[in-house]
Amino acid sequence: MSLGVKINRKNQFLKQLTGLFTPALYLYMVLLGLMLHLNAHCQTAKTKPIDNGQRNVLFAKAAGLNNGVSISWLEQTWNTSALQHKPFTDEDFVLLKKLGFKSIRLPVAFEYYNSKHISTNHILTYVDAVLKQCKRYGFKLVIDYHGGEINDNNYADATKKAITNWLTICKHYKKESPARLFFEIYNEPPHMDPQKWKDAAYNMVTAIRTIDKQRILLVGASNFNSIYELSRFVRLADERIIYTFHFYEPFFFTHQGAEWVGDQVSTTGVPFPYDGKIFPS
Q1: What are the boundaries of each domain within the chain?
Q2: What is the pTM of this model?
Q3: Domain 11-247's class?
Q4: Cys bridge to 237: 46, 59, 66, 264, which one at CB 3.0-4.6 A?
Q5: What are the b/e assignments for 182-210, b being 16+ CB within 10 Å?
Q6: Ordered per-residue pLDDT tens for the chain, 281 residues
């Protein structure tokens, strides 16, 4: 089961949660292909058979992201003062290191900040600070493109918007080691036409490759990175992609108390592992 954890200054809270973390918080599947050319408009996604040698290399890269944790800060669109506060310190990184974590996923709501007239380059100065701490304490970092609004109706324009940001990000981090820094091209594309999402993903990946040909990219399927959609997803034509999925079942456990899921927020206190004797009434 994939669980995201919001990091804050309350280190004791983190310690209590460690029992829920499996040896691999990130659940990755690896499939491969070969990239083709970039076109300014949305193009149909290309594919190519897997090369076993490259597949083994990427399986090893994916394994290196095991024991990962997602930290909440730069995706907090509901928090108008997020940029005014640094929610985690060196002490938090020391704790994560002691707890056995090896990688950090940093969700960033680039488009939200752009809508507030805050440039992507400015947001990257905050990401730089996290990357600096990751280097200091030996973590790998995944920059996650969070909060995009792609759907069946706007996917062409939404793709161009994401590409614009990714080109800026790629230029900024072109010299960073691909073994240390990873890009997740789009968090949880919604329930939409899988082919439209695949075409959008193909164009994002192809654009990134015009600047950064070595970076390992993380790509998920539509329907919120569904594992079921991923099982039907035909790999993209790129040989340096890790395919990722988000798995939330049983949903009433993983999202108990989450206000954004509607009425299910009323269900709280569900234990793990399940114990019928203490199930909340």
Answers
A1: 11-247
A2: 0.80
A3: alpha beta
A4: 46
A5: bbbbbbbbeebebebbbbbbbbbbbbbbe
A6: 433 334 443 344 334 333 333 333 333 333 223 232 333 345 666 666 566 677 777 778 788 888 999 999 999 999 989 999 888 899 999 999 999 999 999 999 999 999 999 999 999 999 999 999 999 999 999 999 999 999 999 999 999 999 999 999 999 999 999 999 999 999 999 999 999 999 999 999 999 999 999 999 999 999 999 999 999 998 898 989 999 999 988 888 888 888 888 776 667 888 888 787 777 66
